[in-house]
């Protein structure tokens, strides 16, 4: 569990929680001392850490021979390569259950109970058949299918669930913990779903333009296994334009304090790994 969780990674989802929290609750001063930052982000980080545990679980399971069968992740050997498939499956399972335990244990002292339950319900839903697991099943089913049999709508469904679900709970959950009402959460979900898709378009582009060293995982995997990707469907230039379009649409409805969330959308489409 620690081997994979502490291997690095960009921590995009915890950052998204904190930025959505700030969008509602206000940002701390830029020169705030660490103790003040810890206090400000206490509730947001309960969720951020818990989502990062789920994300890491999904990477461990995704890399297993029965799924994508990868040897490298986050710049080091994958969990099953070091500890064996049996332990890797169990490490993933334990990260999943620990994530819920962590959220409730850390959150219950300060978060209003109904808000915590709302976040917990959304977090649980993000993992199941209409979240990570459902998206992954559809992705596996489309692998190897001729391009003509996979539509752009299929691809969007896969990535809304497989990649977008955790960004949705990160943004919506951060906002709920910050005190947002239903309408604001709904509006922010539009932002989250757009950056979730943009994240995956950027991932597909990087898979065929970046090196394995830059990515910390095997590059060029999508083409090798004939995966349905935005690049395969739209070409490289088309995918780049799609990422920019999604980024523009995502930030459209943000209010004047949306600087942090806008910067996150920019990072997601311009990242180098
Ligand atoms: C076991 C219930 C259960 C669910 C897991 C394996 C699986 C089902 C889903 C796979 C989900 C998956 C791996 C989606 C890919 C999302 C993605 C683009 C990951 C890369 O995220 P980054 O770039 O990685 O943020 P770092 O390492 O930076 O954190």
Automatic annotation (TrEMBL):
Cross-referenced InterPro entries: Isoprenoid_synthase_dom_sf, Polyprenyl_synt, Polyprenyl_synt_CS, Prenyl_diphosphate_synthase
Annotated family: Belongs to the FPP/GGPP synthase family.
Cofactor(s) listed: Mg(2+)
Entry protein name: Uncharacterized protein
Keyword ATP-binding: no
Entry superkingdom: Eukaryota
A molecular-function term among this protein's GO annotations: prenyltransferase activity
Keyword Lipoprotein among record annotations: no
SUPFAM superfamilies linked: Terpenoid synthases
Biological process terms in GO annotation: isoprenoid biosynthetic process
Cellular component per GO, a single term: cytoplasm
Lineage of origin: Eukaryota, Sar, Stramenopiles, Ochrophyta, Bolidophyceae
Keywords in alphabetical order: Isoprene biosynthesis, Magnesium, Metal-binding, Transferase
